[in-house]
Design a protein that fits this description.
InterPro entries: DHBP_synth_RibB-like_a/b_dom, Sua5-like_dom, SUA5_domain. Residues 14-200 form the YrdC-like domain. GO terms for molecular function: double-stranded RNA binding. The protein is α/β, with parallel strands linked by helices. 26% of the residues lie in helices and 20% in strands. The protein has helices at 14-25, 47-57, 72-75, 83-92, 127-136, 157-163, and strands at residues 3-6, 30-32, 39-42, 66-68, 97-102, 118-122, 140-144, 170-173, 183-186, 193-196. Strand 2 and strand 3 form a beta hairpin. The chain has a single domain (3-196), classed as DHBP synthase.
């Protein structure tokens, strides 16, 4: 049964955030709010968590997982970025964007696209997510909480708790968050390709 945490949206309780971070380090899979919509998250090396995300969302091995990072310095440890791409991403973060980039050796192989050796990265503009990332001290391996056969992500913490009670370990609820997934921009081949139009404005990349 998932533990339910009611978190203040502007001043998240330090003790609660610390408890959740400890549970992630201990192998927990969580559902948490972001600036686009809810996501599923676990620690990078958590094979069980990765497997559960794949099962919940019915994902194949071509799915791009996302490393949700606290800041640009952290993001730069996990992907290769040239100067032009650096400037473009820097100008758009933090925000509701996911960027597909070549993965560095710091990224576990099971998280990379099997052929392209790429991974998704993002820096969210959300108080609760940022507090959790700061406490955790490392990125969260994440995937949008979009269930198979459903057109829109789940947006209410109580509903997530009700529907995923036996497949996630914790649900963080800080009230309303976005209902639209991130905009996904692929920089992996050197050119800009808009993979998904979502919450982030695409005009800067067109």
């Amino acid at each position: 049964m998932a533990t339910y945490f009611d978190v203040h949206p502007d001043n998240p309780q330090r003790r609660t955030i610390s408890t959740v971070a400890d549970s992630i380090r201990g192998g927990a899979l969580i559902a948490y709010p972001t600036d686009s919509c809810y996501a599923l998250g676990c620690q990078l090396g958590n094979r069980d968590g990765i497997g559960r995300i794949r099962t919940i969302r019915q994902l194949d091995d071509r799915h791009h997982f996302t490393l949700v990072c606290q800041d640009f310095a952290q993001l730069g440890q996990f992907v290769h970025i040239d100067n032009d791409v650096f400037r473009a991403i820097k100008a758009a973060t933090p925000g509701s964007y996911t960027f597909i980039l070549p993965a560095s050796k710091e990224v576990p192989r099971q998280l990379m696209h099997p052929k392209k050796k790429t991974v998704g990265v993002r820096i969210p503009d959300h108080v609760v997510t940022q507090a959790l990332l700061q406490e955790l001290g490392e990125p969260l391996l994440s995937s949008t909480l979009l269930l198979p056969g459903e057109g829109e992500p789940l947006t209410q913490g109580w509903e997530i708790k009700e529907r995923l009670d036996h497949v996630v370990d914790a649900v963080l609820d800080s009230g309303d968050c976005g209902t639209e997934p991130t905009t996904v921009i692929d920089f992996s081949d050197g050119d800009v390709e808009i993979i998904r139009r979502g919450a982030g404005d695409t005009s800067r990349f067109e």
